[in-house]
Amino acid sequence: MQSESAPLIIAIDGGGTSCRAKLLRPDGQVLAEAHAGPANVASDFETSCTNIVAASAILFANAGIGAERLHESAAYLALAGASDPKAEPRLRAALDFARLDLISDIEATVLGALAGEDGVVAGIGTGSFFCARREGRLRRVGGRGFQLSDECSGAWLGRELLRETARAHDGLRPHSPLSRAIMARFGDDINELVAFSLRASPQDYGRFAPELVAAREAGDEIAGAIFARALDELARSLDVLEGDAPGRLCLVGGLGATYEALLPERFRARIAPARGSALDGIVAFALEQEAQRATGRAAP
Questions:
Q1: CATH number of 9-111+277-294
Q2: Residues in CB range of 214: below 8 A, 6 or more apart
Q3: How far apart are CA 103 and CA 204, in angstroms?
Q4: What is the number of other CB atoms lying within 10 angstroms of the CB of residue 85?
Q5: Alpha carbon distance 180, 203 (integer Å)
Q6: φ and ψ of 101, to 5 deg
Q7: Are the beta carbons of 77 and 12 closer than 8 angstroms?
Q8: Cβ neighbours of residue 249 under 8 Å, at least 6 residues apart?
Q9: In sequence order, what are the beta bridge partners of 101?
Q10: In terms of DSSP bridges, do strands 99-104 and 128-134 run parallel, antiparallel, or are they unpaired?
């Protein structure tokens, strides 16, 4: 039986939009849940720390536990941007927890989706990543950020749409109903489209994705060509990973279901629903680490 004085576990899944958090006892009993603002340590370290502390304080308040115990707890964080090796020592210096362990949001997503089993996870939302898990080891393709990768993602699709629209405007390809609608949105002024592209974030580009999906389904030529390229990129990434983990394939994220219906049969036959979320993944990681510490097998 756990002692009431045993360190409590804070598990946080933090991304570019929000934090989701749970407070647990070492035996896995959930005491409270909470939400707070974004925590991407690569893009905004200070705000990430502020929101991690805020989520932790909300957890303790929701559980009816005095905030004085917060600094005695063990924090397990799955954060966007955590692949930078400098992130963990910076967080340890900035945050007042008894222990702190950090993994990336990608690793937590894979752990949650596969529930500890082998397989491949394709995470396709505003950004994207592709990751295989085999015997506890991960191999990743993509997920290097919007400027370098994020193929198939909503941001990538939106940028491709604006590129093809500009090409159509310049006479390098025929217009389609979708590209004409995009030009009309910018007042049929190519300079306005260019100005938008110079200030647009991945989230801004991603807002075009639902329109692009609908246009492909309606038979739009430009939308069809963009999705054909996206599917080629997706298949190439999955083929690279298949040798590492040929088992279950989980497609997660806002565009996962869209691609699931379009993939070749050799992939569709392996698709299985995700068993859990990134928050489930960081909780599982935390409990495993605590169990290993209890038996003296975990790193200090």
A1: 3.30.420.40
A2: none
A3: 27
A4: 7
A5: 22
A6: -125, 140
A7: yes
A8: 119, 120, 121, 122, 238, 267, 270, 271, 272
A9: 76
A10: unpaired
* Cα(75)–Cα(73) distance, integer angstroms: 6
Q: Quick one: which H or E segment has residue 237?
A: helix 221-242
**How many residues does this entry show for the chain?**
300
**CB–CB of 178/171 below 8 Å?**
no
Q: Determine the 3-state secondary structure of 251 from DSSP.
A: strand
Q: What is the pLDDT of residues 93-126, one digit of tens each?
A: 999 999 999 999 999 999 999 998 899 999 999 8
Give the three-class secondary structure for 258.
helix
Q: In sequence order, what DSSP letters do the residues of 4-19 get, joined into one string?
A: TTSPPEEEEEE-SS-E
The model's pLDDT over 133-167, given as tens digits with 9 standing for 90+, comes to: 988 889 999 888 888 989 999 999 999 999 999 99
Closest CA to 143 of 94, 80, 198: 80
Question: Which residue, among 61, 56, 39, has the nearest Cα to 48 in the 3D structure?
Answer: 39
Q: Residue 297 gets which letter from DSSP?
A: -
Q: What is the pLDDT of residue 3?
A: 46
Under DSSP, the state recorded for 72 is G
- Residues in Cβ contact with 56 at an 8 Å cutoff, skipping those fewer than 6 apart: 10, 12, 21, 70, 73, 75
The answer to whether 135 and 144 have CB atoms below 8 angstroms apart is no
Type of residue numbered 181:
A
End-to-end Cα separation, the chain, in angstroms: 23
Tell me if 9-111+277-294 shares its fold with 117-274: yes
Which class is 117-274 in CATH?
Answer: alpha beta
Number of Cβ atoms within 10 Å of the Cβ of 73 = 22
List the chain domain ranges: 9-111+277-294, 117-274
